[in-house]
Amino acid sequence: KIKISIPYVADIGKMAAVATKIGAAGFNMTAYLYATKSEFYKASGQVPTHAFMNSKTGGKAIEDPGLRAAFEAAQSSDPDNSGRLFDSFTYGGINFNILHEQYPLLDGTLKDPIDDGRIVWTVEEVEGTGEEAGSPFKILSAENIFNNDDAGSPYFDSYHISDDPFQIGVRMYDNMIPTILKKNIVMQQDSVYS
User: Fold this and answer.
1) Element (H or E) spanning 34, and its range?
2) Are 95 and 70 in contact (CB under 8 A)?
């Protein structure tokens, strides 16, 4: 077995800490968004269009009156959103996405999709032409001897576990490696609320 480790930290940028944190006295959402857009633009050459956060961070963020109004308007105008595992609304040119679902770790404990106090910023489409354009997230395929150098074909095999009771396991190498299309097109900002 070969374990593949992908150093996403080389591609995902770190934004400066928030000067006046969300929820603190004197916090101004418009000024915060302009500063965030400016920093993101300097690092990537594009203005961010999407922000992702977990439900605890989202709950703190929508305490801001402007965000709260945008959030409530989005929910009331689209009743189908009520059954989703995320909330989505737009404010100041940014599509905010609050994620509620958790995923299990190998030890069985549940984890938020994004750490608490963190906002992940990105764009809807990476500007440009050819390979450097498109979705900020990309799936790479791997060619290897198991799939006859055909990166489009997954590889399966089985292995023996025990005779009594008889058990076999199935190994799969699906060739899909998720990656970031361009350095700093996805950026994270930590400790955003007080």
Assistant:
1) helix 29-44
2) no
